[in-house]
Records
---
Amino acid sequence: MNNKITFTDVKNSTEIRTYIKQADLSLEALGYTEHSFAHATKCAEVAGKLLKDLGFSDDEVELAKIAAFMHDIGNVVNRADHAQSGAVISFCLLEKMGMCPTCIAPIVTAIGNHDEKTAVPVNAIAAAVILADKTDVRRSRVRVGAELCNDIHDRVNYAVEKTDLVLDNEKKTITAYLTIDTKISPVMDYFEIFLDRMLLCRKAADFLGLTFKLNFNGKTLL
């Protein structure tokens, strides 16, 4: 696989950053948590590290980082079906940058399969993006001025003080560790809004030959 376009090229692209920024502005207007460069970069780092630690090639690690960084770009069109529109937008942008089809294809597939309404971990890159995206729950994603008492999503995110995704290659497990302030939001609220995402994480882990686990405040619940 000869991929001349790197993650650094994508991350520094003025065009790509413009669309991601506008997508996040739209989500802010709709009352969603942060989906800008902090989320995109964290997802890229987590997805890339996961595949690297599992022994995938450097090319696949790089493609996973690119897919994870661009996965929410479709929100520039609309929140509805943003995975599919994001896949098409990413195809156009990456082809314009000169990326080869064999590199574009798995990226587009991963982006088009990351949203829990339609997602299926059809390849390793898609599985890594799903796990990185769906476990990025943290206080810093809550918008300034958000009314925690009125929005369960903001309240749950704000209650999460620390999160980490840990791979155990020996035991073949991948565990999402969350430290939650239960005075702000009970653990049950998390399951109320994120159960579908956690089930998708389990499917993504299965694809990679792993067992997905969820740990809240030191106790494994899934």
---
Amino acid sequence: MMIRFLKKLSRRVEYLEKRQFRRQVAKANVWFIDIPRTGSTSIKSALSIKYGPAFDKKFHRQSDRKKKASPFKGAPYLDAHVPASQVRKMLGDTVYDGLFTFTFVRHPLDRFFSLFNYRVLVGDLSRDLKFKDYAKHLQKVSTRHPDSPFYKSPYFLTMSDYILNEKDEPLVSKIYKFENREPAINEIEQETGCSFTGKHYEKSEGRENYFDQYDRETAEVVQDFFAEDFKNFNYPKWPG
């Protein structure tokens, strides 16, 4: 009896939270599709300051490794990186299609190298693992091998998976490029009324030239896997 009551209560709480989330987003009239390693954390933080915690991430990894990650902020049922198709389903077509929705994309070779660096930094990968060996794991799907990009979905999903439908049509109003971040931010500020001049969270320090991390074999492996991103977002292949 008690278990049944608690389950019913949990469903009720979840329903109310989702309804509050939908109302909050509809009122803000904006949503940001957060593709991993595209400089997204600072954008979500700025949106949350103006529009509320539903726009934030669950935690922030501080650049200063002596600081702990900030506590839970985002909606409890919303993962850190949710594809546009799922957000649209959650909000409903009418609400979602009326929003200003935007995202950032990044050169696939640069983004994949950044994903690797992130996993090393947070201790998800051994510091002894070579990037070229990590990239070769893309040639075989393995969800059990801890060094594989297939170990967790944010490490292998394409940018196209996040923001396009099955016909390769965009599910967001605007697609900006990480490489042209400054003019893009100026335009987003005009659209949203937010200020994005604050701290850039999770920024890599001492970032190396990503082209230098590849040889032809490694580049071809990554380019083959993320082929649709090169095509859909018009990025040049290695060596440029």
